[in-house]
Amino acid sequence: HTNYISYTQAFWVQRLERAVSRGKDAAGFISEQAELQKVIKGLEQVLDMAERALEGKQDVKVLEDIYRNLGIAYGRLKCPHPELYPKVDCLGQTKMRAMFREYLRRTQKPRSEVATEQIVLDNPDKFVNLA
After folding, report:
1. Is the pTM of this model over 0.85?
2. Alpha-carbon Rg for the chain in angstroms
């Protein structure tokens, strides 16, 4: 299971990187929002599969990686009114923070390697575009 989960996650992360490489719109968001939605859906499915397959197991680095990658993908979703966040909710911002929170809860990495994720969580009222 772990090899399949790792392979599938890598497939979706590669698609995310390709979408990012195709550029941004005038507002600074990734242009390929439809592709980004597909990537998020794919990673959500991988997360669901991984949580079921790895439940109760000790070495869950693959789960940690999925939470981080999903957080990054959600952080790249276009928000209609970033200037009004958090007064006006933005799904990408909310989900990004939830995924990063779970990632930081699970990871064994030193704080120096998780600075970006920690900054996002330390500033809950700040809009963060990861594009």
Report:
1. yes
2. 15
Q: Residue 12 in contact with residue 39, Cβ under 8 Å?
A: yes
The tally of CA atoms less than 13 A away on the side-chain side of residue 87 is 3
- Give me the half-sphere count of Cα atoms (radius 13 Å) on the Cβ side of residue 73: 28
Residue where the block lists tokens 């209609």: 80
C-alpha–C-alpha distance, residues 83 and 79, integer Å: 9
- Rounded distance between C-alpha atoms, residue 44 and residue 103, angstroms: 14
Q: Is 30 helix (H, G, I), strand (E, B) or coil?
A: strand
pLDDT in tens, the chain (131 residues): 778 999 999 999 999 999 999 999 998 999 999 999 999 999 999 999 999 888 777 667 889 999 999 999 999 999 989 999 999 989 999 999 999 999 999 898 998 899 999 999 999 999 999 87
Q: Are 75 and 34 in contact (CB under 8 A)?
A: no
In the block, tokens 């490489």 appear at: 21
